[in-house]
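Input/output pair, single chain:
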Amino acid sequence: MSGNPTLVASGLRFPEGPIAIPDGSIILVEIERATLTRVLPNSNTEVIAEIGGGPNGAAMGPGGYCYICNNGGFNWVERNGRIFPGEQAENYQGGSIERVNLETGEVETLYTHAGDVPLCGPNDLIFDQSGGFWFTDHGKNRARDQDRTGVFYAHADGESIEEVIFPLESPNGIGLSPDEDELYVAETPTGRLWAFPLTEPGVLKRERADRPDGGRLLQGRSGYFLFDSLAVDADGGVCVATLIDGGVTTLSPQNKAPSFVPMPDPLTTNICFGGKGLQTAFITLSSIGQLVSMTWDTPGLPLNFLNT
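Output:
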């Protein structure tokens, strides 16, 4: 990587879900503030929409709408100028998938359940070429228990949703290979990244029961860390925001040795690519409320409904 991170914006309230817009702005969520926010090229910010709950992941989808994974909210802890998410919010009413009109700020709830399965803490999402999207449900933690959750596939019109993978250990980041023939899912507490072969949009190549360990495990790093959200680069490398030691871990679907780029926040939560040739990585440093950027050795993979 080239140089140290450059500060793009500060004073954000636990930023996550960055989207690099071709006009040079960055759209992201502020989970603690419960907003969808735009960071302008001059580093000023403006609120696009008051979301409520806990907007966590964001992605551009069909029709120019921004789709939101809403985890339902956390109780928050502030220590030494940093903010940290805690247990399930006292006013928690469930998780949801929402759609935001970027022109008007109107927020529409698309899903709160998949059949009889409630959405507990939707976390991150990725659109495929067909216009459907995969998303993780991270679940919620309470004083003496936590949810068991999985991965879902849904249509952008709000008419169809299915739980496809269950259970996983607090699934978080999610992405697709360049050919969209594999789905990548990061588990937070285990620090593992799984690859699930696909036959078509929304369909696993094999039943989960065939591999109770969860699919194909990508070679990881040693040590203690947690995985958060992710982005895929143009070579198919999976760049996973990494908690505890704070940085971005890049894992190879071909099981080449992983690499790690440190960041100045133990709660490094997400990465996206933008700028000329998608050569710039934008990274959220959530506990210190910053969005930073740096030149990345490998450009990002263009996203459907955005970098086309």
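Residues 12-219 form a domain with the Neuraminidase fold (CATH 2.120.10.30). The chain has a mean pLDDT of 96.
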